[in-house]
Amino acid sequence: MLLLSKRANCQVGGFALTSVAWVLCSISTGVPQWRVWYLNETIFSEPTIAFIGMWRVCIYHQDSKFGSARVCYEYTYHDSFIPLDVRIVQHLLLISNMLGLIATVISIFALRKVYAGKVQKKTTHNPFFLSAILNIIASILVLLAVLFNYFSVIHKAGITFPASFHLPVYPPSQRIGIANIVASLCALMFLGSGIIFISYTSLVEKQVFAEI
Fold first, then answer.
1. What is the pLDDT of residue 63?
2. Domain range for residue 159?
3. Would 60 be classed as within a structural domain?
4. Are the CB atoms for 70 and 59 separated by under 8 Å?
5. Are 118 and 156 in contact (CB under 8 A)?
6. What does the alpha-carbon distance between residue 102 and residue 134 come to, in Å, rounded to a whole number?
7. 39, part of any domain
8. Do the beta carbons of residue 8 and residue 208 sit within 8 Å?
9. Contact, 36 vs 45, CB < 8 A?
10. Within a domain: residue 134?
11. Which is more confidently placed, 164 or 97?
12. How many domains does the chain have?
């Protein structure tokens, strides 16, 4: 039992990775810093920055007297002005969040089985296999979301926001936001966790291969 428990030490690390990855995936989904728009500036006005997210946009107005003022507008999946690239990323992130949560729950039960010694009855069964597959799929989906957003920024894609948002369709300049970095890190963690889980072999299985 002790040897089998020690064998799952790497899988505990995999569980930690998938848990952190799911948290980062949730954070990156909610924050608005996917695209950073720099709006028109003149010598008579203060700079204005807009953070474009998947579910909201936040506009920061710089004022030399009062500092910076933030105004945020939320939107839903049903809003007609949402472009196709944003809708695709919304889907990818939502599915990744669900898969990451399911993979985390499954890994908890798998660890419980390993430490309870229940996997000794099946020499070829990997209790982490399903969690590994879900993590790898989540990693691919998050990476696709990052790439979709990256190419949208590179090609200077615009968004026709409602007039009440007071935003242009195409900003003078834009760049990738911090959410892309968080999501990329999340994808790497999902992938790392999946590799750790899928490489698991029980102690009994190792002994069978050694005898052969």
1. 62
2. 2-33+80-171+178-211
3. no
4. yes
5. no
6. 8
7. no
8. no
9. no
10. yes
11. 97
12. 1
Residue 81, Cβ neighbours under 10 Å: how many?
11
In which region does residue 166 sit, left (phi positive, over 0), alpha (psi from -120 to 50) or beta (all else)? left
10 has a pLDDT exceeding 60 = yes
Q: Are 134 and 106 in contact (CB under 8 A)?
A: yes
Structure-token pair, residue 117: 């010694």
Provide DSSP, 66-100.
Answer: TEEEEEEEE--TT-TT--HHHHHHHHHHHHHHHHH
Distance CA 70, CA 158 (A): 21
Rounded distance between C-alpha atoms, residue 61 and residue 66, angstroms: 10
Q: What is the mean pLDDT of residues 85-114?
A: 91
Q: How far apart are CA 207 and CA 185, in angstroms?
A: 37
Inside any domain, residue 138:
yes
Torsions phi, psi for 41 (to 5 deg): -130, 140
Q: Three-state SS for 176? A: strand
Sequence-distant (6+) residues with CB within 8 A of 183 are: 24, 25, 28, 93, 142, 145, 146
DSSP lists the bridge partners of residue 58 as 51, 72
Q: Which pLDDT belongs to residue 134?
A: 96
* Matching residue, tokens 């892309």: 180
61-76, pLDDT tens digit by residue? 766 555 567 889 998 8
